[in-house]
Amino acid sequence: MINSIIKRVFIDGVDQNVITPCNINVPRAKQVRYTFQKKGYKDGSSVQNGKFNSVVVANLLLGGLVGGLIDYATGAWYKYDGSVYYKFKDGGDITIPEGGETEVVTRNKAGGTSLEKTIIRWYFDSDPRGARVFWRVISGNPSQVKNTNELYLGSTPFEQTKSFDILGLTYANSRTVQIEIKITRKGYIDQVKRFNVRQAIDQQEVSSFYELVKR
């Protein structure tokens, strides 16, 4: 159960198309990040950590290592208890200064918008480390913001501070834009996560930890 009078709920950057209070089927993982959006307020977020699922012990005994690996890959090792509640701050908390919400990122005025002056911390790590990190833009409104090909960022642990200089992006349309982060390492299954750009702007951070699974 998720409580708060808001318009939209995201789980790990994916819009759930619900209005709170509501019940949501949460993907079982070691950690899940919720994002809450309400007009006039800075996006809120909450992280819920999964608890070890004792049912996995039975699967290990009955299914052996293969059954345990399947549980790990599908997230069945973790479960969640209770509800998630978020309270927005009175009066709102907007990241971009008034008047800067509709400034468009363009090549003609590179670095000149309030959006481009908002520095974002990018941080990605993995176990094992040394995985290659790629990113691309996934747009819900391609007439304004184009989808892009993958670009190489570096290897885990990766940390950098940079703004979103995505052409066509505004603070207003950033709700419909995601960035996709793909982690690859030889001998391991590729992992992909998507992050809502509006959330990253408001939190001034986009980060995640990837537990790699051998092929």
Mind explaining what this structure looks like?
- With 215 residues, this protein is mainly beta.
- The chain contains two helices and 15 strands.
- It has two domains: 1-93, no CATH class; 120-211.
- The protein is 13% helix and 34% strand.
- It has a four-stranded antiparallel β-sheet with strand order 3-2-4-5, with helices on one face. Strands 11-10-13-14 form a four-stranded antiparallel β-sheet.
- The longest helix is centred in the first third of the chain and has 20 residues, at 55-74.
- Residues 63-75 have low confidence and may be disordered.
**What is the count of distinct domains?**
2
**Uncertain segments:** 63-75
- Principal-axis shape equals globular
What do the pLDDT scores average to? 79
The radius of gyration over CA amounts to 19 Å
Main structural class: mainly beta
Secondary structure layout plus pairing:
Blueprint: E1 2-3, E2 8-11, E3 14-15, E4 31-37, E5 44-49, E6 51-52, H1 55-74, E7 78-79, E8 84-85, E9 120-127, E10 132-139, E11 151-155, E12 158-162, E13 177-184, E14 191-196, H2 197-203, E15 205-211
Parallel strand pairs: 1-8, 9-15
Antiparallel strand pairs: 2-3, 2-4, 4-5, 6-7, 9-12, 10-11, 10-13, 13-14
Concise description?
With 215 residues, the protein is mainly β. The chain contains two helices and 15 strands. The strands form five sheets. Strands 3-2-4-5 form a four-stranded antiparallel sheet, covered by helices on one side. Strands 11-10-13-14 form a four-stranded antiparallel sheet. A three-stranded mixed sheet has the order 12-9-15.
